[in-house]
Amino acid sequence: MYLLAALHLIISSSLLLFVVSYNETEQNDIIQLFSDYIRRFNKSYDYGTMEFKKRESIFEQTLRRIDWLNKHRNSSLDALYGINQFSDLTPEEFKKITHLNKFNTTAKKAYPLQKKLFTNQNSVKDLPKKVDWRGKDIITPVNNQESCGACWAFSSVETIEAMYALKTGVLEQWSVQQVIDCAAAPNRGCGGGDTCLTVEWLYEVRNF
């Protein structure tokens, strides 16, 4: 049967996940878990319709993939996979709503990067195996970009927020919308962008 393997929620990137374990089971159990999924994530599929059966099949494939990935974890420090609001989508549908295919990476040539690496050898010794910054007032709450393909802006801003907090001890939440609207080309708002180009642009304008 399908089992909820944990009662707690885990956060991965910007998505809320709940962890499941997959085993071969009767069709009724699959339908029940999918029905619970529909309620949890406010989906609107009518039972017995072709769309319901299609999404149920995709959902089952997702469960198999999650189970395989979690069984191949080497330690408790490895990523733990679970169900989220995208678990009933095909890879092609996911790419479409997140605009993963739209940004042309060759556009990077239009905005050259300053490739400067700074390494302090003393800072990389005796590092802990795991650090959870959530309890250290270093990272801001998880955001949901929904259907806007602006992961480049969210990740850039949130990284700078964390770096600022580490340096000053002050955690502030800054405007992702400003970066989406104003960042220099080839960034294209909800149509895609590049994190490295964005950070360089922020460094140049210094009005963030």
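(ticket continues) Second input and output from the same batch:
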Amino acid sequence: MSPDNDAGQGRSGVSRRGFLGAGAVAAAAAAPLVATAAHASPAAEGDGLVTVQVTVNGDRHAVRVDPRGTLLDTLREKLELTGTKKGCDRGQCGACTVHVDGRRVLSCLTLAATTNGREVTTIEGLADGEQLHPMQQAFIDHDGFQCGFCTPGQIMSAVAMVDEGPARTDDEIRERMSGNICRCSAYPFIVDAVRDGQEAMR
């Protein structure tokens, strides 16, 4: 093929040189858009941290966190909400249970960055001022704890369980609360507390 044909117009009426030139112009025009998008991304911040906008117990927070950081560590270390406990730190004990948009989650397995724009409720946010939540009161009334370390997670899980749909039997309570471990083995009292707390929440 001759150089003239190589630079000449094809069937579409656009020469190869013209096509390549137009492509270069388009790429140059798109470059600022790509750079702007990257600059706007929280992950592009120079210190490697991201800013998470999250509502916790009704209060809005802008928290700078490591993208790999957990919700549990953010609550305890950044927001000083230490009611949520760090037990196994691997999603096996349930002591770190909190609510995200009304659903129970294990905060030790939840990245803080994934809660951007969402609502988080911890054990500190259940009571209405001095008035305890019915499930909190039920745990007190039935001594549903011994050392108390697992209790915040037990209560948060129980409240979410009722919101998901009330349990009909004690066996169902045990099954649906099975993700929360009590090393003191206060399970009979926990079941009693959840049963009565459920009735009080209706």
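Agent notes: The first strand starts at residue 50 and ends at 56. Residues 1-7, 19-44 have pLDDT under 50 and may be disordered. Closing as not reproducible unless the customer responds.
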